[in-house]
Amino acid sequence: MTTPGPVDGLYAVGPDLDPGLPDGPVEDAWDRRRSSYRLVNPANRRRLSVIVVGTGLAGCGAAATLGRLGYRVECFSLHDAPRRAHSVAAQGGINAARARKVDGDSLHRFVKDTVKGGDYRGREADVVRLGQESVRVIDHMQAIGAPFAREYGGQLATRSFGGVQVSRTYYTRGQTGQQLEVACAQALQEQIAAGSVRMHTRTEMLDLIVADGRAQGIVTRDLLSGELRAWTAHAVVLATGGYGSVYHYSTLAMSSNATATWRAHRRGAAFASPCMVQFHPTALPVSSSWQSKTTLMSESLRNDGRIWVPARAGDDRPPHEIPEPERDYYLERRYPAFGNLTPRDVASRNARERIESGHGVGPLRNSVYLDFRDALEREGREVIASRYGNLFEMYRDATGEDPYEVPMRIAPGAHFTMGGLWVDFDQMSTIPGLFVGGEASNNYHGANRLGANSLLSASVDGWFTLPLSVPGYLASLVGTPVLDASAAEARGTVAQAQERIAALTAVGGERRPVWFHRRLGEVLYAGCGVSRSEEGLRRALVEVRELGEEFWADVRIVGGAERLNQELERGLRVADFLELAELMVLDALDRRESAGAHFREEYATEGGEARRDDAAWCSVSAWHTLPDGSHVRRSEPLSFSLVDMQVRDYR
């Protein structure tokens, strides 16, 4: 495969990346790699230190396990407690290829569903590892306290999720992420109490320290005092989540940001597939221009809820007045095999098409219905409440409407990012010693993530991959001292962070950071949203660059740097978002095909589905940003031996 050249000389093209896969069949690659990792004598582990940034499922798992193994772990979170990490927001469930129900599931089917769901733009060997370790994840999470739902006879209950036709998703009502995060945070607290992990809360990573060609520490800002400090270690693990909040209106928490991964990128870590952004089809619609974010309603609701719009454009009757023949259950009509459980990219794209064609519902005509009328009649209120009760309560609290009585109103919202820092098979970035886990990395999901694979991938990385690959790297550093925090590289990185803060506070403009963030979201939703076009992307690229220039000329940061200052926090994050957004648009413009969530309107089938170009683009694009701001695109060619490449069809 020869990857196409650059568009209009907007960037350079560099050499291909090597994922470091072991030789031999892909189905046992993880077994062979796991057996070949170098080991560290228990007596030497206490002399080796690791920094873990982030306390979601990946961060908690890595910190707790490495601490229990005997390594010295410094763990950082910008929250006031580890358990407040954004993993709590994943509601619907966690997948596992255990095949406990007699419905045809298997490890091979898990791999096929995940690779196909990602539209053949993810690394097959990593998906195999994800499926293999998924079998252990459920038992492990149950052992540390996750209260999974059970059938009447005591067996763990499962349900289906989008993109599959089997029942492999384990859940705790609509609180799965929250319950898993609580269990993992308790495991972390055990190691904190034992002294093997030192926890640093309300502390944000602002930069990565690279010395002698490898990651050896981070620079942080104490969010209460404003103090900048260098922390050094033998290795660094980033588990800081995704960058969906770049769109301003997103399902992510307001504090979610991309600074840790973006700063690592600016230090040399390749950023892979930045344009691959998933829009969740069951987010609540924006109801006001002053709304700060959107709210996620779990995909699990699509098991029993039916999605529809009025068949007649502009029909403004209340839903109960629209008779059955005048309703368009468009997913069931277009995709009869999967119906309302089509993958998220397909469901979001179809919802957007219905809304833009005049069939949208609600006060702003910007949503579709998710209706539980038939399920309530069939199952009864008590059964539906047992499955989704807290989600129904959350919807009622957010909207004032009772979903037991009226349909929910939903719309696509920026949610999960399949892109992230590029990692090899060991979860190590292009900077030696910098490991990345969870949504902050890129390797599993390709161009679209299947629902309930996010909690799984974060858990596998944190509990079963990083605790093996990180020690394998550390083994070569036994006897090597930790970089001194007063070393030139550390002091220089701290100084650069100070200069960036000083430059930001010195602008003295008229507009708050949130104004620029809101405007950036408008540009991205219009030009690099659910669907994209060359014309829209070229316009977005110009607008993002102009907005970046305006930001550095007119942003206003009130208050000082040496104190609690949330405006400064937002300003630093928005500055990084503006740089990241340029790369996202550039990546989308560069990838001249449609694949999964990256839907280029010029590259679609006659039926309006994504049309891949496997001859030119069966690869992962990974980008470097040079000190002068220019970009270099590298590629990781992909191949598939277990799953035949085919046109993605859910009909």
TrEMBL record:
Active site positions: 344
Single biological process term from Gene Ontology: anaerobic respiration
Residue ranges constituting the FAD-dependent oxidoreductase 2 FAD-binding domain according to the UniProt record: 50-455
Name of one Pfam family that matches: Succ_DH_flav_C
Keywords: Cell membrane, Electron transport, FAD, Flavoprotein, Membrane, Oxidoreductase, Transport
Membrane topology note: Peripheral membrane protein
Cofactor: FAD
UniProt keyword Electron transport present: yes
Enzyme class: oxidoreductase
Family in the record: Belongs to the FAD-dependent oxidoreductase 2 family. FRD/SDH subfamily.
Name of this protein: succinate dehydrogenase
